[in-house]
Design goal:
This protein is mainly α and about 450 residues long. About 70% of the residues lie in helices and about 5% in strands. Among the domains are: about 250 residues, Na+/H+ antiporter like domain (Na+/H+ antiporter like fold, Up-down Bundle); about 35 residues. Helix 6 runs parallel beside helix 17. The protein is globular.
């Protein structure tokens, strides 16, 4: 038996590392993002329904802007969050979708058929229920609200349930949630954009085209792409197309494969190792060039998609989404608001429409043999997972802010919070009690 290679020596530890280590462990807990999001939601609700609620609401509507010569961009704090920070959220969604399409379950049509069918049912049936309950009223424009699934809360609930959620069901629900995100993006793009500004939109699409050209030329600088992405975002803001669509498009364009293969990276490391173990250190200018080469090789050994997803995911989970909740979940409500038509339509769509659509369309896909049923998963467990997908929250709140305003928006938020809470409870209870397939 050949001896194993010794582990590389650890980097020197500093006193601050002892403080950071527990935080890093918490950030890697699967359910942590959902916990932080839940805490921020409760905090926002408590403050909104306290004596300081009006001041809290006014603070989020403080005007903040930027002016450079004749160029001016200003809006409320809430809009900066919804149009700015949430663009990064949708950029990460675009990265996740690209990963699934290129490397994940969505690249195999046969394997993707069941979660895609389930996601379609989980969007169509809740929207149909919402429209049926509201008829031809102006609030019917919010049909997209109960179509959404909040993947952070779903992942958190599955993590808390542990082995009660079979691994195949977990994979199916995560793939379903990604497909659900694609549907929500299409709804936002097609149904909830204001009047188009042709010139800004053309400039934004031109920026997207430049991203493709730069990739073909082999430009690898994150700084260049970051500046170009910011310009595209501004153009989309001015065009009337919601800025989050720019984030999704840029995410989908991010390369999913590493520039350097394992063999080439090993060659670079071997060269550096030879230089370090030679007769002596090279001159300072050669050392600096070698370090830059090693840094670049290390960075290029993983794909830009993987690098950015790992870099941005903690910021999205532990900063952007909690801030979004603090700004958008601050709903002043009374118990009577739960019986308002919009709240009822949203709540019923999330609580009943989601699991009904997911189970019905899954059954149809399996019956007509378009999809394979996952081994070891029972229909009761799928119903419980479908109920968990009724946790709309982040995406549902976001779509509500685009589709509705005034009293309809306020009661829609009540329906989102109430329906999501009941869906989380119902899904957890069903999954806890359900038996695996024999």
């Amino acid at each position: 038996m050949s001896p194993t290679a010794p582990a590389p020596p650890p980097l020197p530890r500093e006193p601050i590392d002892r403080l950071i280590a527990p935080i890093e462990r918490f950030l890697h807990v699967e359910a942590a993002g959902g916990v932080v999001l839940l805490v921020c939601t409760v905090v926002a609700l408590v403050i909104a329904n306290s004596p300081v609620g009006p001041a809290y609401h006014d603070w989020w509507h403080t005007e903040v802007g930027l002016r450079i010569g004749g160029f001016e961009l200003h809006n409320s704090l809430e809009h900066w969050i919804n149009d700015g920070l949430m663009t990064l959220f949708f950029f990460v969604v675009g990265l996740e979708v690209k990963r699934e399409l290129v490397l994940g379950d969505l690249r195999d049509p046969r394997a993707a058929a069941l979660p895609l069918a389930a996601a379609l049912g989980g969007m169509v049936v809740p929207a149909a229920i919402y429209v049926a309950l509201l008829g031809r009223t102006p609030a019917a424009r919010g049909f997209g609200v109960p179509m959404a699934t909040d993947i952070a809360f779903v992942v958190g609930c599955m993590a808390l349930l542990g082995p009660r959620v079979p691994s195949r069901l977990r994979v199916m629900l995560l793939t379903l949630a990604i497909a659900d995100d694609i549907g929500a993006i299409l709804v936002i793009a097609l149904a909830y954009n204001s009047d188009l500004g042709v010139l800004p939109l053309a400039l934004g699409l031109g920026g997207i085209f430049l991203v493709v050209v730069f990739q073909r030329l082999g430009i690898r600088s994150f700084g260049i792409y970051g500046a170009l992405g910011a310009a595209v975002w501004v153009a989309f803001v001015k065009s009337g197309v919601h800025a989050t669509i720019a984030g999704v498009l840029l995410g989908l364009l991010t390369p999913a494969h590493a520039y350097l293969g394992r063999g080439k990276f090993a060659e670079v490391l071997e060269d550096v190792r030879g230089a370090l173990h030679g007769s002596g250190w090279p001159p300072p200018e050669q050392r600096a060039a070698g370090v830059r080469t090693l840094q670049r090789a290390t960075r290029e050994s993983i794909s830009p998609l993987e690098y950015l997803e790992n870099l941005l995911h903690p910021w999205v989970s532990f900063f952007i989404m909690p801030v979004f909740a603090l700004a958008n979940a601050a709903v002043h409500f009374q118990v009577s608001d739960l019986t308002q038509p919009v709240a009822v339509a949203v709540g019923v769509g999330l609580l009943l429409g989601k699991p009904l659509g997911i189970v019905l369309f899954s059954w149809l896909a399996v019956t007509v043999r378009v999809a394979r049923w996952p081994q070891g998963v029972s229909w009761a467990q799928l119903a419980g997972g479908g109920a968990l997908c009724g946790i709309g929250f982040t995406m549902a709140l976001f779509i509500a802010t685009l589709a509705l305003d005034g009293p309809s928006l306020a009661t829609a938020k009540v329906g989102i919070l109430g329906g999501s809470a009941l869906a989380a409870i119902a899904g957890s209870v069903v999954l806890y009690a359900a038996q695996p397939a024999k």
